Amino acid sequence: MKVVVKLDHKLTNQIRTWGQPMYGFWNFLAGQSIVIYVLVAALFAYFGYLALGFYLIVFLSSYVIAILLQHFIRRPRPNFEKLTGYKMWIETYSCPSAHATVSAAAAASLGLLTTFPSSGLAIITIVCSIGFAFLIGVSRIIVGVHYLGDVMFGWMLGCVIALGYVILF
Predict the structure, then answer these.
(1) Are 141 and 147 within 8 A, CB to CB?
(2) Domain over 2-168 is classified CATH 3.40.50.11540
(3) Using an 8 Å Cβ cutoff, are 53 and 169 in contact?
(4) Contact assessment for residue 132 and residue 33, using Cβ atoms and an 8 Å cutoff
């Protein structure tokens, strides 16, 4: 287990170093990104391609599940206050990343729940959603609030939650 934790820390530090030259971009993305998924979903719902209520259930429940798991797992966050000087307004745990969980659930449910008017729009939306979920997870590592393992677990959890809702309903 110690080997896995060491590898997680090493890869996290490499990703963080790689992203430092564009820290402002990553910081913005880490903090404001989830809003974009809500706006995209609202746009699809407005045109009648997405049941917004069902999408919001997946979106909100993935957040609640991630927060509950954080309190069960209790993995401390990286020492990002030392790295960035930023102080979180509420103390939470690190694993799984709630942002990664919600973004993966949002991306998966957009792809699975939307009735697209054309296959071209479907491909563009799905690829952009998945890419955006990836960027959100990377941003959480670069700004120093999560380890790579937290983000990867969040991505998997979000996909499982979205797929579970689609199968159940």
Answers:
(1) yes
(2) no
(3) no
(4) yes
